[in-house]
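REQUEST ID: PR-0412
SUBMITTED BY: lab tech R.K.
PRIORITY: routine
TASK: structure prediction, single protein chain
INPUT:
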Amino acid sequence: MRKINDFKPFIPSNDFDVSKSFYECMGFKINWSSEDLCEVDTSFGYRFLLQSGNHKNYSESLMLHFMVNSAKEWYEHFSNVGLVNKFPGTKVSEPELMPWGLIVTHVWDPAGTLLHFAEEPNVV
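STATUS: complete
OUTPUT:
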């Protein structure tokens, strides 16, 4: 039977070293790195490949969606580590209830890739 053993998207960067530092500051780990590619481990079971270069502004069209227990806790973490102050051009939005029912903190990485840290709200 055919099966897929792993899946890792390629994420572009405008400045490879800055992007590696950005993801480490978020709390992610660099498992290995070469001159123009590295594996980023989210520390919660998922990895992606960060590549040197941004082909035709691919990053500005790319979004990654992370389901988390608390969008607010992630927002507070990003504030506490000074993500926006350390990496000019990045942005972090406060958690917001979206029309599709998830609470989302948005983060824009140094290349413009949009990251969604989303939680399902507790409905009583």
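NOTES: The two ends are 44 Å apart (CA to CA).
REVIEWED BY: pending
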